[in-house]
Amino acid sequence: MALSLAWPAASAELVRVEKSLEAMGSTFGVVAYGSDRPSLEAAVDAALGEAQRLDRMLSNYLPESEWSEINRHAGIRPVVVSAELFQLIADCMRHSQQSGGAFDIAVGPLMKAWGFYRGEGGLPTSAEIRNALARTGYRHVRLDPAAHTVQFDRTGVELDPGGIGKGYAVDRMVEVLKERGVNMALVSAAGSSVYGLGAPPDEPQGWRVVIRSPKDGKQPAAVVFLKNESLSTSGSYEKFFWAGGRRYSHIMDPRTGYPARGTASVSVLAPRTIDSEVWAKPYFINGRAWTAAHKPEEFRVFICEDTKEQTCTWVR
Fold first, then answer.
1. Count of domains forming the chain
2. Between vectors from CA 156 to CA 153 and to CA 160, what angle results, nearest 5°?
3. Is residue 114 one of the residues assigned to a domain?
4. CATH number for the domain including 143?
5. Which of 51, 74, 251, 282 is 20–30 Å from 9 (CA)?
6. CB 196 within 8 Å of CB 209
7. In angstroms, rounded to a whole number, what is the distance separating the alpha carbons of residues 237 and 53?
8. What residue ranges of the chain have pLDDT lower than 50?
9. pLDDT at 54
10. Widest CA span of the chain, in angstroms?
């Protein structure tokens, strides 16, 4: 877990509800406070139900999901998708363009070549990387806003929801909570993407979250307070394998076909969780100088470099 979350106790006037479930290959958790337990329980259940709904839409492991339907058929014909999914993919295309391809919604072939689709990874051959690169890239994706269709310009292209699914789900879960009158909650996905709604009863600054040190997971690298704000962390220590005495992480540079190097972890604080999750990858891949030149003013970014000293600082 990249982040350490602390759950405050309930006050005398408020009840506290905490629940979790598995979706998108991750654990989604909600802790919420309110004055009425039945309505609070119902709101938390509805938020977790939203994560399950999105799992059925976005999963690339479920063959019946809309996402899997696109990957199976869009290389052959246009695939009609729901308005919600079309807008999400359009947003991902925009992020892919703005990041210069450092984030790429169509990185699926590379993730499969490196074995990160279902396992812990393995070293592909140069020919396998070249073959995957030929089928990788958002430029192969064609969107028709009028018909709500997605099509690829060649077979073998695949969209990968790994860089956006959890962040989008957390944002939707927060909206469900707000619609049901909840104004104090912390929503988390896999301990790597979280959103703090309001502030807990004992901490007016917001929800206290510890960003763990990549070198020593028991030590904090930074402490932040989330109040109507999200935090996402990407780290090379989360999923990796060793080959030839070298460590290869799951954070892929879609432009080179190889895992990114030089950064140990990146944490992004942003108004929306989908943005913090998406942009953690380009900041990780491109490094501190690029991040300082490209991050929006409303973002805060904390980078730990993959050096012997492992310097961890906020990007100014």
1. 1
2. 95
3. yes
4. 1.10.3980.10
5. 51
6. yes
7. 30
8. none
9. 97
10. 64
Is 266 a domain residue? no
For 260, counting Cβ atoms within 10 Å of its Cβ (0-12 exposed, 13-18 middle, 19+ buried), the class is buried
Model pLDDT for residues 217-227, shown as the tens digit of each residue: 678 999 999 99
Amino acid at 104: D
pLDDT tens-digit readout, 99-157:
999 999 999 999 999 887 665 678 899 999 999 999 999 999 999 999 999 999 999 99
pLDDT at site 117:
64
The alpha-carbon radius of gyration of the chain (Å, integer) is 20
pLDDT of residue 237: 67
Contact 86, 143 (CB under 8 A): yes
- For residue 200, what are the β-bridge partners? none
Residue 142 within any structural domain of the chain: yes
> Does residue 104 lie within any of the structural domains?
yes
Residue type, 171: D
Nearest to 101 by CA among 210, 253, 226, 215: 253
Which candidate, 157, 141, 156, 149, places its Cα nearest to that of 93? 141
User: Is 0.70 surpassed by the pTM of this model?
Assistant: yes
Q: Where are the beta strands (DSSP E) in 71-215?
A: 79-80, 141-144, 149-152, 185-189, 193-197, 207-212
* Cβ-based neighbours of 57, under 8 Å, separated by 6 or more: 65, 66, 67, 82, 84, 85
